[in-house]
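input
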Amino acid sequence: MRDRGIPLRARVAAALVHATPDWSATVASRLMGAAARLRLPSSVGRAAVQAYARWFDVNLRDVDPLELEDGFTSFDEFFTRRLRSGARSIDPRATAVVSPCDGALREVASIEDGTEVTAKGHAFSLGELLADEALARELVGGTALTIYLHPRDYHRVHAPCDALVHRVVHVPGRLLPVTEASAVREPRLFALNERMIHVLETGYGKMAVVMVAAFGVGHMTCSYQRFTPHPRELQVRDCDPPARLSKGDELGVFHLGSTVILLTGPGLRCTETELPLPVRLGQSLLEEDTGTGGRRS
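output
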């Protein structure tokens, strides 16, 4: 991927972050997260939300009107806001695997032999991304879908289909910006950045939903398991018993946001061909690929 067409400001910003030591970007991001959690007077909170919403064109109609009226006690509370009832429709069809979040579907790539994923601007080992070579081999022949979250988006992540969650993994790492300019400098950035991995058993076999942090992300939280990620240690938490989730149930939350990668095994195909594509939580993205035998039990 070449940097032609990428604004100079974006290239300079990426160069500065890439040139700094790992610890400095991490400290800066943690401080930003801590500042976002500071309690604000209600009048200040309302003013901050309105200013942010105007700047990033946030659709406040998706937010519970009572929450907007009462105000948010911190910026983090607004950023991790829940949707009002009925704001999203989860495709109810048993054959539909849906988007786990709001955002822009930017890349759809096949998971080839050797578990290498090559998509626009990115080339990395799936085993490295997942910190699990055995799981990576199970997904060969499947599909990797990459969804970028914009600051305006809803930042909770949900189950793409009915599933049992067997394991959640936190992988410490860098906090590089997830931008085109950064991808030019480091195509492996998804496998280098901090991430939280939800390992699902579904009617289509194994899936993984990978939440990738970036510069400015204070932290990520798991919604179905008490789990406090350690900033410097790989943590693998087996769910015993597995967490039983229905399609659309919550998996985790970005406290400030980044990127979600949905990884499936064989038997499914992406229904979207025109990229990039704005997507919303609950929108159907994958269906059975009858040419490979369809759904697995």
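quick obs: The first helix runs from residue 8 to 19.
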